[in-house]
Amino acid sequence: MASITLKDVAKVYPGGGGTRAVDNFNLEIADREFVVIVGPSGCGKSSTMRMIAGLEDITEGKAYIGDTLVNNVPPKNRNIAMVFQSYALYPHMSVYKNMAFAMKMRHVKKAEIDVRVRETAEMLGITHLLGRKPRALSGGESQRVALGRAMVRNPEVFLLDEPLSNLDAKLRTDMRAEIVKLHKKLETTFIYVTHDQTEAMTMGDRIVLMNHGRIVQVDSPKDIYDYPVNVFAAGFIGSPRMNFADCEIIERGGEYFAKLGEGGEHLISLTGVNASRPELAALTGRRVTFGIRPEHLGVTAEMDDTESRFGGGTADIVEALGAETNIYVDFPGGLRFIVREFNDKPVARGQRISVDIQPGKIHIFDTETGEAVTGRRRHGAPPATEKAAPPAVKTGDAPTDISSGNDTELADQIAAGVADAIAEADGGDDA
Ligand SMILES: Nc1ncnc2c1ncn2[C@@H]1O[C@H](COP(=O)(O)OP(=O)(O)O)[C@@H](O)[C@H]1O
Ligand SMILES: [Mg+2]
């Protein structure tokens, strides 16, 4: 059993020109917790994991496992297991030998090795694969073997770095659920790294959202969705991503409104918004970003004039996904928002539709700092250093999926390092 504490941790790679791959990283992970570190490719997730594992020196700050300062503790004495995207299996060994390897190097008795390997294989449903070589395994099977090889060592902490990225979508969904189950069964601490916001939302007790080497927000999946601390968090979590638009906050008759679109075509009441009047007052005359998730807009039958009316627009693209429909709507004033509709209302391309908005779900950001004005800012996350992303509402812009990215190459390098670390941890060269 082990908690993990990182205090003011930073990573500067030699030859990296002084760039801080990880900076000002403060996090406490409780014993048996399942924490997901999520962020775009290159934001420092793997560097953080490698420092926890001991594969990479900690440039600044302190790392503790339990109460033990581990900055200078070699990987083999940390009782941590790692699973990586590229599996890092020994190609010339059978599955059985891959799983038994670490114990064999520790001179565990053959009979005990056999029991542990078979128990673990049973748990993962890979008993029938024990005689095979890695090249004869599918991606899903390889990933299970990699998990199995980590599990037989009975580690206190599991580090999983994008372990499902090489799998197809269906298998990824299955494995996601299996890893969550495994965590419950093993009752150990799990740190899971991914660039995929869906994995983060579905797997973690807590999400640690990173960008540019820093923590942006630490929260439960629901809170990070409901109360993103800045434009980056708002845009990263949720799919399709939140709609953003430049806006102006004005006061009229004691009520606050957001004016959107060229020429202020849309006047949206902020009465129901999750911000105080002084907070809204402070924004008048400043550059402000308006945000609304596609699922908080809807297609209405009537052109009414209530508080929840957003306005009339033209359906440009209609993506019917079965349970839901994503409608890309062009509004006057050059606004283009995605509306996510769960009702079975058929909307045709080019059709004029009326859209309403859930006023309580509006997000308001200070454009200068990118920070959210709406929601609770009760979290210990450091103030956002992000510049706000430019609102992507220009007509014709397809929404960019910032959660996609490919660090296979990097993972391969890491995997090679891990194989070495395992060999080293096991006190001998590959046998
Ligand atoms: N060994 C290394 N030497 C120099 N720079 C590195 C090294 N490993 C990673 N980096 C850089 O550090 C940053 C963070 O990388 P990484 O932690 O791998 O990000 P992620 O896992 O989030 O994709 C990137 O800019 C990357 O290029
Ligand atoms: Mg990585």
Describe this structure in words.
The chain is α+β, with helices and mostly antiparallel strands and 431 residues long. The chain has two domains: 4-228 and 409-425, Rossmann fold (3-Layer(aba) Sandwich); 243-366, OB fold (Dihydrolipoamide Acetyltransferase, E2P) (Beta Barrel), CATH 2.40.50. It has ten helices and 20 strands. It has a six-stranded mixed beta sheet, with helices on both faces. Helix 2 (95-105) packs parallel to helix 4 (139-151). It is elongated. The chain starts with a strand and ends in a 6-residue tail after the last helix. Residues 377-431 have low confidence and may be disordered. The protein binds adenosine-5'-diphosphate and magnesium ion. The site of adenosine-5'-diphosphate (ADP) has 13 residues, from helix 1.
For the record, the CATH class of the largest domain is Alpha Beta
Structural class comes to alpha+beta
CATH architectural arrangement of the largest domain: 3-Layer(aba) Sandwich
Rounded mean pLDDT score: 84
The small-molecule ligands in this entry are: adenosine-5'-diphosphate, magnesium ion
Bin the strand percentage: 25-35%
Q: Indicate the overall shape.
A: elongated
Whole-Å distance between the termini?
31 Å
pLDDT under 50 segments (min length 5)? 377-431
Report the strand count.
Answer: 20
CATH superfamily of the largest domain: P-loop containing nucleotide triphosphate hydrolases
Order of strands in the sheet with the most strands? 6-7-8-3-9-10
Q: Summarize the main sheet.
A: 6 strands, mixed
Number of helices, where a helix is a run of at least 4 consecutive DSSP H or I residues: 10
SSE string, helix = H, strand = E? EEEHEEEHHHEHEHEEHHEEEHEEEEEEEH
Summarize the amount of helix as a percent range. Answer: 25-40%
CATH topology of the largest domain: Rossmann fold
Q: What integer value in Å does the Rg equal?
A: 25 Å
Give the domain tally: 2
